[in-house]
Amino acid sequence: MQQAPEPAALSPEETDEALRRYATRIRESYGRLDLEVLIATEEGEHPPVGLDEVVEELCAYRSHETETWELAFDRLRNDPALPVRMEALRATRYCRDDARVWAAVRERASEDDAASIRALALARLVMGRGDDAATRQLIQDRATSDSEPRVRVNALRWWAVCETDDSAPDLLRDLAVADPDPEPRIAALQSLAFGWPAHPETLPLLRERAEADEEEDVREAFAKALAAAEALAPLADQLP
Length: 240
Known about the structure:
Blueprint lengths: L11 H19 L20 H11 L4 H13 L3 H10 L6 H14 L3 H15 L3 H13 L3 H14 L5 H11 L3 H14 L6 H11 L3 H17 L8
Helix pairs in contact: 2-4, 3-4, 4-6, 5-6, 6-7, 6-8, 7-8, 8-10, 9-10, 10-12, 11-12
């Protein structure tokens, strides 16, 4: 599938001009907007407006305007403030340009500096493009290489949901042993216990890791997962 070309980033002057133009349209709802520092309003005025609120307002009510999305995608990629990028990512649900939306979401899932943005972008992809091969590849990439353990945990769980191939448990088994952090190891074995309890390699691995893992808390979690898998294995044919 041909990727949509990436638009050039808006210059600071273009961004400020767009914000000033739109600020007048939402002033009645939100009050005064200071584009330089987003300072608090005078006492008695409406509450101050954050740029994240501006992005949400524009995308919700001006989604038909090209300038809205030029600004929103520019802020999603380039804004230094986490709340602004987060709101711009959420606001992509209003955009009808699917190719551009999913390209931007995939980019944020792998390249954003903030783990919370990467996690949200990954969830957005799974919900909207879970059957896509590129999405599954990205899930695998995040599960194995993301720098943040909680993002790897989320990716492992999404993998267990989205990947239905017979080889799906292989990644979970590998990371149950190899991940350097305890949370992803626990998530991997829990996914095996509840998703593939009757697989011939699940119970032996759970028994091994319940004794061999270096972390006591992890060993305890594995013992609980082992008990669950042993109970579920005889019922595997009846599970969804």
